[in-house]
């Protein structure tokens, strides 16, 4: 049953707007604080209070109205609530009973539960203890493993183990004491490993310095072997080129498949370096170790670069250079295999420092050298050092440059040694033709230097056209060429032939030719010896081609190329000039000897009244000497030299007779003396013609014969014996018969010429007439010569 709705009663307030606002705020559940604060701040709290009272009254009215409308429902609800209270009391009693029964039943169980919980607590504690002990056991086990690794010098797994302990276990160790001990020991163990590795590395530094010389010697030996193989291959190539007309020989070129594993030959252990580098890197001090390695190796290099002052450089240079080579072979291996321990710039800087020091030492030592062979030994080992290190990538330009700078010094020493040897040989030579009794002697002294005239082996004993000094000189020159090629080989020059040829010219000109000229001008040789010297020079001049071919062969230039070259040796022309010098010396010697016999002209009776039947004594002596001279010269000298010497002697004889007639020693001479000179000249001319033909000079087409050398004195004798001497002034006759005579000389001689007394031809009227006619003609000639002068 519901009551009818009633009208709401509206409460009027003095401030209707404010009341509606408050009512709206309350209905919406909003905060009234701002309105209340505003009212009090504006000084009108009464209005607010009135409105609030009004709202309260209104709500009370609404509550009353609601209660009137639902009072019956309230009564029903109260009745039901009373019934529920009765049921609740009953339920409460039942629950109390059940609780009592439950507590009685659970008392024993609670005791057991306490025991169980206690057991659970013990179990938890035991589990935690087991976990703690397990961690400690693992840590201790790792510590023991680390100790074992350290004892076995297995530092890398030891560091791995320490790292595992530090990162995986240290923070989780439950025992503070154990944790503290482990934390304190880890850096100590690392420090121990660092010291141990450093100690091993220091031992390695000492060992590798001791081994460096052996390593360098092995490397240089390999370079020497490679050079030897290269030279053998070049020799086979030259041989193949020399016999190319016979077709290729399949055995001349072959692929060398020998094992040349240099790494196995240069066996040295870098394990301590690798280990030290790796350990220090693992320890986080890799940069410190790299600096330590570099500085220590630099100190070792500085010690290695100090040469010994207690022994000559010739004896110490090989160990010194081998030590340097070994050092840089090791450095190259470390650079290549030690994973960044060295940088390329460090190795290059170290090498540049070392090579600068080496070049300085070499320049100083080369400047002190006094023996070419010592110079060459050091140079060869230096080039082997360069070859050994260059295959590892090191630059050797400075080494090559210092050898190039010392080239002239070496050759100067070589020239001095050659000069001494040649001077000794030429001074001690007997200058007699060399007698060769055995074939091996012929091969050693003739064939070896291509001094033979043909390929046929002569009968023995064989008399060579030269003396023993010639093959000895050839040996010296050939040795000079070989030494020069040895020095210039494997240097910076690509084509050494021109340089070798230049020095070959120098040894032939400055040494050989000068020594020969000294012998020529020393005037210590007899005629036969001087002739042999002339023959020797001719042979040596011909040997220049052999020297040049030998130099070309050693320089790797094929023979056919060398033979086609038009650029010969300047020394050949110089030796040719020296031949002329020795020929002049021979001529002077011959003339000097002739002068000894021409002195006998003083014994000639220039005013004899009897015509001689035989030659004068001086001429007989001269002819004997000339016979000896020609026979000796014919055996030794080439025809050209023989021609010059004999022609010079003939000309000198002619000049000597002319000089005698011109000198004041002959005041006057008669026709009979002239007849004696005529006999002398006829004998001399016959000798000259015979020798000119017998020596083969006539076949050479010489324009001037031996007889022609006597033309001046012959024309003078013919003029003096002429029936009409005045024809001398006839230009045509003079040109035809007396072209070699000089006016002044003729005037002097004619002035001394006196015909014989009339009594000499008194019984021969016809001859007397001729004599008078000749005398008149001679007088005319004398007058005309005086007028001409």
UniProtKB/TrEMBL annotation:
InterPro entries: EXOC6/Sec15 (IPR007225), EXOC6/Sec15_C (IPR046361), EXOC6/Sec15_C_dom1 (IPR042045), EXOC6_Sec15_N (IPR048359), EXOC6PINT-1/Sec15/Tip20_C_dom2 (IPR042044). Keywords: Cytoplasm, Exocytosis, Transport. It comes from the Eukaryota. One of its GO terms (biological process) is Golgi to plasma membrane transport. Residues 227-251 have a biased composition (Basic and acidic residues). It is found in: Cytoplasm, Cytosol. Residues 226-251 are annotated as: Disordered. Residues 51-219 form the Exocyst complex component EXOC6/Sec15 N-terminal domain. Residues 398-752 form the Exocyst complex subunit EXOC6/Sec15 C-terminal domain. GO terms for cellular component: cytosol; exocyst; membrane. Belongs to the SEC15 family. Component of the exocyst complex involved in the docking of exocytic vesicles with fusion sites on the plasma membrane during regulated or polarized secretion. Involved in polarized cell growth and organ morphogenesis. During cytokinesis, involved in cell plate initiation, cell plate maturation and formation of new primary cell wall. This is Exocyst complex component. It comes from Digitaria exilis. The lineage of its organism: Eukaryota, Viridiplantae, Streptophyta, Embryophyta, Tracheophyta.
């Amino acid at each position: 049953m519901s009551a009818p709705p009633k009208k709401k009663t509206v409460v009027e307030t003095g401030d209707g707007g404010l009341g509606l606002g408050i009512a709206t705020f309350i209905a919406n559940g909003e905060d009234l604080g701002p309105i209340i604060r505003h009212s009090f701040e504006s000084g009108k709290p009464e209005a607010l209070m009135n409105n609030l009272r009004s709202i309260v009254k209104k709500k009370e009215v609404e509550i009353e109205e609601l209660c009137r409308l639902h009072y019956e429902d309230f009564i029903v609800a109260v009745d039901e609530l009373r019934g529920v209270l009765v049921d609740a009391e009953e339920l409460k009693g039942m629950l109390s009973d059940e609780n009592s029964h439950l507590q009685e039943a659970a008392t024993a169980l609670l005791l057991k539960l306490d025991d169980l919980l206690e057991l659970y607590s013990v179990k938890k504690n035991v589990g935690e203890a087991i976990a703690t002990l397990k961690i400690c056991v693992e840590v201790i086990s790792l510590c023991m493993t680390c100790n074992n690794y350290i004892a076995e010098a297995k530092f890398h797994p030891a560091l791995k183990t320490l790292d595992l302990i530090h990162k995986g276990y240290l923070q989780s160790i439950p025992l503070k004491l154990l944790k503290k001990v482990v934390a304190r020991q880890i850096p100590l163990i690392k420090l121990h490993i660092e010291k141990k590795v450093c100690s091993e590395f220091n031992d390695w530094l000492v060992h590798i310095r001791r081994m460096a010389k052996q390593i360098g010697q092995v490397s240089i030996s390999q370079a020497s072997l490679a050079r030897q193989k290269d030279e053998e291959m070049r020799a086979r190539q030259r041989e193949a080129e020399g016999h190319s007309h016979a077709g290729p020989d399949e055995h001349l070129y072959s692929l060398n498949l020998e094992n040349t594993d240099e790494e196995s030959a240069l066996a040295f252990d870098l394990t301590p370096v690798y280990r030290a580098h790796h350990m220090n890197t693992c320890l986080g001090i890799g940069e410190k170790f790299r600096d330590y390695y570099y500085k220590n190796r630099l100190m070792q290099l500085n010690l290695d670069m100090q040469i010994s002052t207690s022994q000559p450089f010739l004896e110490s240079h090989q160990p010194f250079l081998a030590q340097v080579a070994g050092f840089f072979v090791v450095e190259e291996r470390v650079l290549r295999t030690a994973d960044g321990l060295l940088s390329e710039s460090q190795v290059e800087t170290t090498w540049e420092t070392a090579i600068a020091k080496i070049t300085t030492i070499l320049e100083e030592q080369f400047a002190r050298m006094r023996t070419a062979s010592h110079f060459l030994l050091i140079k060869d080992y230096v080039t082997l050092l360069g070859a050994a290190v260059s295959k590892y990538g090191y630059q050797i330009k400075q080494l090559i440059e210092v050898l190039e700078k010392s080239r002239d010094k070496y050759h100067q020493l070589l020239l001095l040694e050659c000069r001494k040897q040649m001077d000794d040989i030429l001074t001690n030579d007997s200058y007699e033709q060399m007698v060769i009794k055995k074939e091996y002697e012929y091969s050693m002294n003739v064939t070896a230097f291509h001094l033979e005239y043909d390929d046929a082996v002569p009968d023995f004993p064989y008399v060579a056209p030269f003396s023993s000094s010639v093959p000895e000189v050839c040996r010296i020159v050939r040795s000079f060429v070989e030494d020069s090629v040895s020095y210039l080989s494997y240097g910076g020059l690509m084509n050494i032939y021109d340089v070798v040829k230049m020095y070959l010219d120098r040894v032939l000109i400055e040494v050989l030719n000068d020594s020969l000229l000294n012998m020529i001008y020393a005037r210590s040789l007899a005629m036969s010896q001087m002739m042999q010297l002339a023959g020797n020079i001719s042979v040596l001049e011909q040997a220049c081609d052999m020297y040049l071919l030998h130099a070309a062969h050693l320089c790797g230039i094929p023979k056919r190329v060398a033979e086609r070259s038009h650029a010969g040796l300047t020394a050949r022309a110089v030796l040719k000039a020296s031949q002329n010098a020795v020929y002049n010396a021979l001529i002077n010697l011959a003339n000097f000897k002739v002068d000894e016999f021409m002195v006998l002209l003083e014994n000639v009776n220039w005013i004899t009244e009897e015509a001689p039947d035989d030659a004068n004594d001086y001429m007989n002596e001269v002819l004997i000497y000339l016979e000896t001279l020609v026979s000796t010269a014919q055996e030794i000298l080439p025809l050209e030299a023989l021609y010059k010497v004999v022609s010079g002697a003939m000309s000198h004889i002619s000049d000597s007779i002319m000089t005698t007639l011109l000198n004041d020693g002959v005041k006057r001479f008669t026709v009979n003396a002239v007849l004696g000179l005529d006999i002398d000249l006829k004998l001399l001319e016959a000798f000259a013609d015979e020798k000119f033909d017998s020596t083969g000079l006539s076949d050479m087409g010489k324009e001037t014969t031996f007889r022609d050398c006597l033309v001046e004195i012959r024309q003078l004798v013919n003029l003096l014996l002429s029936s009409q001497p005045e024809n001398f002034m006839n230009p045509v006759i003079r040109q035809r018969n007396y072209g070699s005579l000089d006016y002044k000389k003729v005037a002097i001689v004619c002035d001394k010429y006196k015909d014989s007394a009339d009594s000499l031809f008194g019984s021969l009227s016809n001859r007397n007439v001729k004599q008078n006619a000749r005398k008149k003609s001679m007088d005319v000639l004398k007058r005309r010569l005086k007028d001409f002068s």
